[in-house]
Amino acid sequence: MSAVGLIPRDAPHLPVLLDEVIDGLAIADGETHVDATFGAGGYTRAMIATGARVIAFDRDPDAIANGRALEAESGNALTLVAADFSAMESELAALDAIPVDGVTMDIGVSSMQLDQAARGFSFQSDGPLDMRMSQSGPSAADFVNEADEAEIADVLYNYGEERQSRRVARAIVAARPITRTSELANIIRKSLGHKPHDKKDPATRSFQAIRIHVNRELGELVDGLEAAERVLKPGGRLAVVTFHSLEDRLVKQFFRERSGSQPAGSRHRPELGSNRLPSFDKPARAVRASESELARNPRARSATLRVARRTAAEAWSNKGDG
Ligand SMILES: C[S@@+](CC[C@H](N)C(=O)[O-])C[C@H]1O[C@@H](n2cnc3c(N)ncnc32)[C@H](O)[C@@H]1O
Fold it and tell me: How far is the CA of 302 from the centre of ligand 1 (A)?
């Protein structure tokens, strides 16, 4: 049966690939699962409905506050934790919940975050230049106003694949201070020679890049995958949904390496030796959204789900390695 019916009609975020995630997790009654990215609780609701106990993380205090009603309603089936998922090992240890049967990560921003102009994620509506999921630490405005031009160019190039990163960085530095999302979007558009009929807003790539940088998203993803490897029991499932190629590449590489399909270690991670036993089975084929889901939720367009099962071998990364 589809889990989509469990999602309230007025849910502020439509869960992506929900049935595919729940199928991939193959939850047995009474298992303990981690929802690493609670958001509006779409996955958590479906996990609870299959009989799981869920420990759900979110770094956004608003997501946690909005989830408190579901937590109260669900008796002991749900525990919410306001923390980065990279910290899941110590947080789960404090709850005496290790090992767990599943970890699910739905990477990226929620519709609640994107749609609220005041959170400063969107170039389509004007708001303060913020972009912090956790609502703490340096904001996007701090970054664009304080970083040097070369650093801004690197971020735009590495995390936004913006080929004209130097040109955009120069325009940003020349226009400082910048405090509003609309201001930044216009500076970027102008520097790239935006035409009103362009199919894709040229600010898209730079906004993605700055958001990834401000929230340390790729570092969190790698640390989260490694933490999941350490907390899963043999046979436990790791399900990861990503939204762009930079993230998906990391997940694909992680599973390839850990399942023994690719020699371990690299120039960047020489400490990972080549004589380890696979800590995950070969992942199932990557899953994309169906036509019917895309018709309901165009935001699912770029989502990719990968699921793999933990073996009994020792985790490759030790706590704090990441
Ligand atoms: C795409 S949404 C998840 C939606 C959720 N699956 C649902 O069905 O409602 C991603 C959520 O993960 C949170 N998040 C992103 N990175 C995180 C991290 N490193 N640690 C904890 N939470 C994170 C965001 O704040 C956001 O609420």
Answer: 16
The pLDDT value recorded for residue 271 is 54
By alpha-carbon position, which residue is closest to atom 27 of ligand 1? 39
| pLDDT tens digits, one per residue of 37-93 | 999 999 999 999 999 999 999 999 999 999 999 999 999 999 999 999 999 999 999
Q: What is the pTM of this model?
A: 0.94
Label residue 79 left, alpha or beta by phi (over 0 means left) and psi (-120 to 50 means alpha).
beta
Q: How far is the CA of 150 from the centre of ligand 1 (A)?
A: 30
Ligand 1 site, residue 91, Cβ cutoff 6 A: no
- Which helix (H) or strand (E) is 72 found in, with range? helix 61-73
Angle at 301 between CA 296 and CA 305, to 5 degrees: 105
Cβ(81)–Cβ(44) below 8 Å: no
Contact 168, 162 (CB under 8 A): yes
